[in-house]
Amino acid sequence: MDIAIDITNTVLETERLILRPWLETDADDMYEYASVPGVGEMAGWKHHENKEETTRIIKSFIASKEVLAIVYKENNKVIGSIGLHQSWANADERYKELKQKEIGYVLAKDYWGRGLVPEAVKRLIAYCFDDCGMEALTVCHFSFNQQSRRVIEKCGFTFVERKETYLEQLGVTYESLQYILLKEKA
């Protein structure tokens, strides 16, 4: 079952990262990574065409109260986002009674391969289970996105099934692999 989570005042830290609410002043940093072809497409959205689009997205993140900016401590730069969204498992008879959210994330291409996303996801998992009373978390990735597959495996999620997913923004259908992490297994 979907539960409401308001992360407006949430700040989470890891060794190298700060996960904090978005600010409109983050537009330059977000545009820098979100305008790179291939970054958004790995997560199901087209790369940003202009800074106005980026500003609109940031405002929607602020309004939704469910997406945090990923800030790299070394340079105090926003290098991605991580959020809690409605889970695919809410419609699955096996899991629909669990208090759950789906984790989604994106990272600037220049920071890929450094273990930053697993670090952020593990911190968010701890927050969700320890502070928010969630019973399960889900995540998914497209079959071609091997970087996300590795993140998901490193974070202890269990594979559930494959589904075809239509992405309206991109006008394509991709195979999506769905995973779950139950609190008692974390």
CATH names the topology of the domain at 12-137 as Aminopeptidase
Low-confidence stretches: none
In round numbers, the mean pLDDT is 92
Number of strands: 8
Number of contiguous helices: 4
Query: In what range is the share of β-strand residues?
Result: 25-35%
Task: Tell me the radius of gyration.
Answer: 16 Å
Tell me what the CATH architecture of the domain at 12-137 is.
3-Layer(aba) Sandwich
> Termini distance?
19 Å
Shape: globular
Specify the CATH homologous superfamily of the domain at 12-137: Gcn5-related N-acetyltransferase (GNAT)
Question: How does this structure look, described?
Answer:
The structure is a single chain. The protein has a domain at 12-137: Aminopeptidase. Helices cover 25% and strands 31% of the residues. The protein has 4 helices and 8 strands; from the N terminus they run ββααβββαβαββ. An 8-stranded mixed sheet has the order 1-2-3-4-5-6-8-7, sandwiched between helices. α3 links the parallel β5 (100-107) and β6 (136-142).
